Each structure stands twice: as C-alpha cells, then as structure tokens.
Amino acid sequence: MIKPLLVKTSKYFIALSFFVALFSEASAQTEADAIMIPKNYLCTGVMYGHSSWDHYWEGTFKRDNGNIGTLTTQMYSLMANYGVSNKLNVLVSLPYITTHASAGTLEGQKGIQDLMASVKYMPVEAQVGKGVISLYAIGSVSVPLSNYVADFLPLSIGVHSTNIMGRAMADYQLSNFFVTGSAQYVRRSNITIDRNSYYTTEMHYTDEVKMPNVAVYNFRTGYRSESWIAEAVVDNNTTLGGFDIRKNDMPFPSNKMNFTSAGVNFKYTFSKPAGLELTAGGDYVLHGRNVGQTTTIHGGIYYLFSVKKEKKDKK
C-alpha cells in the first residue's frame, strides 16, 4: 500500500445555504477530503458548530437589517464513517440546527435537519515522482428528516429539498504536505411551501417551487501526518439559476445563493488513548450574493476503532 490508511480524519466541509450556515456536512472525516479509514474500522463522533452574521448581500448590494440584527446558527451533529474496504468508505451525518435573530420579532427555528449519506471510493492511488496521487469518486444523498418550514429564510434551518450529489476529487501528497481539489454537482428536488402562490421574477400560482441546482468547488492544502492535520481551505458555491432578493424583501428558497469562503482546520490524533481525535477550525465568507457574510467556528471529538477482533496467529 503506497499511502498509509491509518486513522487520519480531517476537516469539516460546512455548507452554507443562504443566510444561515446550515452545516449540511458535519463530520470528522467528510466526503470532501482525501482521507480514507481502513477496512472494518468505524469512526463515530459529535460536532458543534457556531456561525453568525450581521451583514448580508441583497443581490450584489451589501447591507445590514435592523429587523434581524445578528443572526446566529448553532449545529449539533452526529456522524459515523465505516471502512467497507481500504478503498471504499460509507459516511452518515445528522445535524440538529437552531437559529436566532438578536433583533426584531422573527422567531428562531430549531429541529433535526437532513440526513446525509455518502459513498466514497478511491479507485486510483499511485506513486508520481516523490509523492502519491489519489483519485476519488463520491456519491451522496441528503433527505429531510423533519417537517421544518423552508419558506422562512433567513431563520429556516434548511430548504427541505432532497439532494443527489456527485463529486470528483484529486489529491497529491509529498511527504507530509498535500494539495486537494474537487468539484461537486448538486441536483436538488422541487419543494412545496405553505402558500398557493408566490412571486419570483414572475407570478406562480402553485405551492411547488423549482429549486436551482448547485456547483461546489473545494480546494485545500497543508500539512498531514498520522498525528496532525493542519490545512487551509477555500470553498465556492455557485447556484445554477435562481434570482436575486428584491429590495427590502425576505429571501426565498430558490434565490441565487453564491459565496466564496476561506478557513483553516486542525485535527490531532492521540496515541493514548488510541483512536481518540479532536478537531477544530473556522471559516469566513469573503464574498457572496444573496447570502450572509458568515463567520463560523466548529469543533468535535471522535473515536475510531476496529469492529472486528484480530485473529491471533497460530503457532
């Protein structure tokens, strides 16, 4: 095996859906990093995330809003990742979200959001020069698990669509330094809202909302060893359709929601007790369209262990 497949879990890819950071992927190891766990190992853990903003982009116009003040979102997530083989991992995460506005009369929301499951496959791992290149194919699906209200942005905990996602990823590691890039396509289902008509750029006499699909790009680089991971991460979300928020209007689930964020992530794996990991990090939205300029911090604790007892060697 060219690259050791030890317990190296990495950063959280935290997805932002409109104003609130909705943490749709929140786990110690995610489908957006180039980390695999070994066959018959299970990684489980919990994560906490906190995000807030007091300015947002209404289309391309940056502004604040006295009826919202500072919007705060908190996320509590359970995760699990199982190594079917050294080249195939299955990941599951489930977040509980709360939102709160510091001003105005809008009431914050809370509840279980969307169950997300991913299959992560590494078909290629080869020596190139003095380093190792790895190629990955990832398929994911997310499904709402509660009847939360989507048409209440920016305080909604999600947009209530069922999503099917495909990602291609490449990673190159030279000694302990690495660079990873990936691109993802997110196909979103239509949703229904609690009104029989609504206006976007034209009048719609229906309760069904056509949701635009999304392209996601991720780049990360840094230091990676069996004990430490320290990385810088840049994410870009581009909505393939949608429209801008009208002046002084509330946002709508099918708005165009674009952003670019930058952040850092850290992970430490203990030698004793073996399998225990702590993670921390944060990111900041540098530029956006119809999203909040969000600052996010997050941390988690995870434990990785073998689900099969090793057989003792016969004499």
Short overview:
With 315 residues, the protein is an all-beta fold. It has no helices and 21 strands.
Percent of residues in helices comes to: under 10%
Q: Work out the number of β strands.
A: 21
SSE order: EEEEEEEEEEEEEEEEEEEEE
Radius of gyration computed on alpha carbons: 20 Å
Number of alpha- plus pi-helical segments: 0
Report on this structure:
Helices cover about 0% and strands about 55% of the residues. It starts with 15 loop residues before the first strand and ends in a 9-residue tail after the last strand. The strands form 5 sheets. Strands 3-6-7-9-10-11-12-17-18-19-20-21 form a 12-stranded antiparallel barrel. Strands 1-2 form a two-stranded antiparallel sheet. The protein is mostly beta strands and about 325 residues long. The chain has strands at about 15, 20, 40-55, 55-60, 60-65, 70-85, 90-100, 110, 115-130, 130-145, 165-175, 175-190, 190, 200, 205, 210, 215-225, 230-240, 260-270, 275-290, 295-305. The radius of gyration is 20 Å and the shape is globular.
